[in-house]
Design goal:
The chain has about 575 residues and is of the alpha+beta class. Helix content is about 60%, strand content about 15%. Strands 6, 7, 8, 9, 10 and 11 form a six-stranded antiparallel β-sheet that branches. A five-stranded antiparallel β-sheet has the order 4-3-2-1-5, with helices on one face. Strands 12-13 form a two-stranded antiparallel ribbon. It folds into three domains: about 65-170 and about 270-300, no CATH class; about 180-270; about 330-575, MetI-like fold (Orthogonal Bundle). The chain is flat, with a radius of gyration of 34 Å. The chain is built from 17 helices and 13 strands. The model has no long low-confidence stretch (mean pLDDT about 85). The chain has helices at about 5-25, 35-60, 95-100, 105-110, 125-130, 180-230, 235-265, 300-315, 330-360, 365-375, 380-405, 420-445, 450-455, 460-490, 495-500, 525-535, 540-575, and strands at about 70-75, 80-90, 115-120, 135, 140-145, 150-155, 160-170, 175, 270-275, 280-285, 290-295, 320, 325. A hairpin with a 2-residue loop joins strand 7 and strand 8.
Length: about 575
């Protein structure tokens, strides 16, 4: 063996390294500097884009409900326009438009390369103008004022109304505007809204109970007829009981209908008449007025009160005016319910499949094919899952359930159509590959020595999995569930086929047995965004609701994910000290 002189070898190696560094000093690719800048720049660009998108959504969503002033614009031809300034933009003036521009203002347009500015005003009064918005070019504006007596009215129908209060009728007595006190009108409005709430309670809840009881009794009779025959004594006895019960229920219905009619007659005594800027008048029942205020004389605290009131209405009521106004409580409930059901379905399917593939299945070609198939399922378009869910879950499985358990309801389907249950199962199939892959990775990360130590102590394979492997893999499993939850909550395409609707008359939960009705259609925030943004009669009116609904959907997903991350971190801290 040849001895190496360390004293002579070390300087030679250093000299060689120095020569190599000098030779490649100008070649930055050898040390990776350009790639570090490219990767860092890509990361920074991605973060900027995401932050910009979130900032756009948050800003437009948060300012949507802030009350804006009402401007009265006098045009050069003497016409008047009153409304909220919505947005402004620059546009090119055509030759026909330029010919109508006053001569003293054409020079400004010519100096601006033929461009001029215009403002979009929300004029409201759709039942008068047949339009919600109007563009007003700056060259047509003679003056702009903000009168203190202009009123912004939010109605149950026809959208907002903008004008001045001309008169009111309170308890059947006409009161002109000069004798109408704001406090007295507010008190009359509160009383009218209370009557409206009472009418809604009678018609929806009390009369709804009567109708539900009648329908339930009718289905019992039909069920007896299907099982025993319409000529059997049992059917005749059931029909007689139904007739006796129906008489009492009809009497109850008539009493409630008269109560509602009396309240409506009393409600007709309270109205308010508004005059729009052009002089046309519109009388509105006070009960149909959701909110009215004078935005030009609101203080900061007054604006905050209107802002918070609009948010509360948005979160706690049903939508109106083709979903462009009102609240989205049914959509919030449907989104949360569907996401929770999704987690309940996808977690056991994904975890059980991953356990079998990792812990029990013999590793070979078949298992490799299964893993490849699972990974490929994650790339299947979501609409394909929607078609499968509609065909298999709704039509085949749901239709079979209707034939066996609900024959008396046919041909009206119960489970044989889209509903919350089938939507959750469809999205569970959509997201189960994510859970399977994440669970397998988490199971593989558990040290083999733990399994061997448990088996050496006499534990069975299942005991080892249940008490050793699963608890330590739970943080990784939770990561997969969080990813599945985030994707499922934002999916829209499959839901359009398996249960989501524009407006759900009934929530999936109510006071009737079995209290939770998973077969019912539901509303969803993602579909609500699509419907308001692309299906409403006026895209400008729906644009603010798109931003505020998107903001709410993001916050809802963040809250649900944060709760899941909290539990995952607790599990991770619990087993952090036992890893070896």
């Amino acid at each position: 063996m040849t001895a190496v002189n360390i004293d002579t070898a070390a300087p030679a190696a250093k000299a060689k390294s120095s020569v190599y560094r000098r030779a490649h000093a100008s070649d930055l690719s050898a040390v990776g500097e350009p790639f570090q800048w490219v990767l860092g720049g890509a990361l920074a660009l991605g973060c900027i884009l995401i932050a910009g998108l979130l900032l756009l959504v948050f800003w437009n969503g948060l300012v949507t409900f802030w009350p804006k002033p009402i401007e009265v614009v006098r045009l050069t031809d003497g016409a008047m326009v009153a409304g909220e300034p919505f947005r402004s933009e620059s546009f090119r003036v055509t030759a026909d438009q330029l010919a109508k521009v006053p001569a003293d203002r054409r020079a400004a347009i010519a100096n601006n390369d033929g461009f001029a500015n215009r403002t979009l005003y929300r004029i409201g009064n759709y039942d008068i103008y047949n339009d919600d918005f109007r563009w007003v070019p700056d060259y047509d504006v003679a003056s702009v004022e903000r009168p203190a007596d202009m009123v912004y009215v939010e109605r149950l129908e026809w959208g907002p109304l903008i004008g001045r209060i001309k008169s009111a009728v309170v308890n059947g007595v006409a009161v002109p505007a000069d004798r109408l006190s704001p406090a007295g009108l507010a008190a009359a409005h509160d009383a009218a809204r209370a009557r409206w709430a009472q009418i809604q309670h009678i018609e929806r809840d009390l009369i709804g109970d009567v109708n539900h009881t009648i329908e339930k009794a009718r289905l019992r009779v039909r069920s007896v007829g299907l099982s025993a025959g319409v000529d059997s004594p049992a059917y005749k006895a059931a029909q007689q009981r139904f007739n006796d019960e129906d008489v009492k229920l009809q009497e109850r219905f008539q009493v409630l209908a008269k109560q509602a009619q009396a309240l409506r007659a009393e409600d007709a005594k309270d109205t308010v008449t508004f005059a729009e800027i052009g002089g046309k008048e519109k009388s509105v029942p006070l009960s149909a007025v959701v909110r009215f205020f004078r935005p030009n004389e609101l203080t900061v605290f007054g604006k905050i009160g209107v802002y918070l009131g609009r948010w509360w209405e948005f979160l706690s009521t049903e939508p109106r005016e083709a979903n462009t106004e009102g609240g989205i409580l049914p959509a919030i409930f449907g989104t949360v319910a569907m996401t929770l059901l999704l987690v309940i379905f996808v977690a056991p399917f994904g975890v059980i499949t991953a356990l079998y593939l990792r812990e029990y299945a013999r590793q070979g070609r078949l298992v490799a094919v299964v893993r490849i198939s699972v990974n490929n399922l994650a790339g299947v378009p979501s609409i394909v899952y929607g078609v499968f869910g509609l065909g298999f879950f709704a039509y085949i499985v749901g239709g079979s359930i209707d034939q066996v358990f609900f024959p008396e309801r046919l041909p009206s389907p119960t489970f044989g159509t889209g509903g919350l249950f089938w939507a959750a199962l469809t999205l569970a199939l959509l997201t189960v590959p994510v859970v399977i892959v994440a669970t397998e990775e988490a199971l593989a990360a558990v040290p083999r020595s733990m399994r061997e130590g448990s088996l050496a102590c006499g534990a069975s394979k299942w005991q080892t999995i249940r008490r050793i492997v699963l608890p330590r893999a739970m943080p990784g499993i939770m990561t997969g569930i969080i990813l599945a939850m985030a994707r499922g909550a934002g999916e829209v395409a499959p839901l359009m086929l398996v249960g989501v609707v524009k407006l759900a008359p009934e929530l999936p939960i109510d006071g009737y047995f079995p209290f939770i009705h998973l077969e019912r259609s539901f509303m969803h925030l993602g579909f609500h965004i699509y419907d308001v943004g692309f299906q409403s009669r006026n895209s400008e009116a729906g644009k603010p609701m798109v931003f505020v609904t998107t903001l709410l959907l993001i916050l809802l997903i963040v809250v649900m994910n944060a709760a899941a991350i909290y539990f995952r971190n607790r599990l991770r801290r619990r087993f952090a000290g036992s890893q070896f």
